[in-house]
Design goal:
The structure is a homodimer of 249-residue chains. By secondary structure, chain A is of the alpha+beta class. The first copy, chain A, is built from 10 helices and 4 strands, in the order E-H-E-H-H-E-E-H-H-H-H-H-H-H.
């Protein structure tokens, strides 16, 4: 089966969550973002979203084509690919749990996005920067430890013998968490440096994922896009944890 | 199969998306919100979220127990229940599409929530009211027509002979959209009154769902909780579309 991944070129964004699963599994796939120049790739992605000419248009990318099937939404795509790529638990309870983890990561990702767009995705960052500073501070104080602490406790309960979020082996949920951690380290380096002290299992999982042979080769390749300030994870220094004032000041 | 639905008492919230599927299907279920007094119901829901004592704790309610299985996240629960309650397309392509629709509705619901909590869910509304007024105006101007227009176009493409979002019959996606429309009519009555003029198929779908016999009986019963300002959908007049000033003023 040759898969076709549709996502905007030039940003890793939510397409990268799918790319990591395909790369880790060594799957045969066409990446529309790379298959043609950026302008044509964008046009191909947009054509698939055209509600006037398509019976089941996705609301937004990423979407995946697999033969006659088309699947949209990151968690839906990962639930579809997981069993096909040997990246999902074999039993129903495990698959439902793996999907729940992916949906929690989807919610986490949306909240990470919203710190730079608290007034809505249709306004420029520059037009909501002051509100974003307040939203980011609240996120760093409350939501970042809440989400990371949740995954830490899940990993802690599983113990050293089963160091993955679901089942006995690496699943799409582990790859998803790895990419969220990578995105947070880029977007909020100071806040993440502080927060990771409390979640050693999460940091260890991210390292374990990054060391998987096919994924390590992908991450070192020029196919791995750098994060930038057009995607979901954006680094704006004013949104990060601010340095402590020097002693005595 | 007797299902057990776990969700906070006293608010319809995201639990209602699950309740509607169970009620429409006439399923045998225990609703924890009603099975005991509110205090004990809240304690039962919270116990299921305890990360210290549970191997696969949900991140948040609602969650559903079905025999030995436990499923969390609205869309995950609906994807599980759909085929079991005859509320899903029979083919794989249809089920993947139905799940994608549910996930778009999940995103829509999160954005509806965020207009009253743009700085984060951990702060009181009163402490972010001014920002919420700006977020709501942006939502009403941009996101409300974007989401409603998407579902309108999907229904429009399906035509009069197949007046449901997925497959040949009512599915969990239709019930989900009905409840989002109901929530929006409560939360933003002026904005929704104006917006619905452009989406007659969505309004007709909501009426079609509400007229289904078992659902109509449920909606008229005292089991149907009223919306209030503690849930996802909240009515704060200052967030709604503001009336036009009188002519000449």
């Amino acid at each position: 089966m040759r898969y076709e991944l549709y996502y905007w070129p030039d940003i890793p964004g939510r397409g990268e969550f799918i790319r990591l699963a395909l790369e880790d599994a060594g799957a045969d796939y066409v990446d529309i973002a790379y298959s043609q120049d950026a302008e044509h790739a964008s046009a191909a992605v947009a054509a698939g979203l055209d509600t006037r000419h398509r019976a089941r248009p996705p609301f937004a990318p990423p979407y995946l084509r697999a033969g006659d099937l088309e699947i949209s939404h990151v968690a839906n795509i990962l639930a579809f690919l997981g069993p096909r790529l040997a990246l999902a638990p074999a039993d129903e309870a495990g698959r439902l749990w793996c999907h729940a983890l992916a949906l929690t990561l989807t919610d986490f990702t949306a909240e990470i996005h919203d710190i730079h767009h608290p007034l809505g995705p249709g306004l420029y960052y520059e037009d909501q920067r002051e509100v974003a500073v307040r939203a980011a501070a609240t996120f760093i104080d409350q939501r970042l430890p809440r989400f990371l602490g949740y995954f830490e406790s899940v990993l802690d309960a599983r113990g050293k013998r089963r160091p993955w979020l679901a089942g006995d082996a690496c699943s799409t949920a582990d790859l998803y968490l790895f990419q969220v951690v990578a995105g947070l380290r880029y977007a909020l380096p100071r806040a993440m440096h502080a927060a990771e002290r409390a979640v050693p299992n999460v940091s260890a999982l991210a390292a374990r994922v990054a060391a998987r042979p096919r994924l390590a080769a992908y991450l070192a390749s020029d196919r791995r896009m750098a994060f930038n300030t057009d995607g979901v994870f954006r680094h704006y220094p004013e949104l990060d944890l601010q340095p402590e004032p020097p002693y005595g000041s």
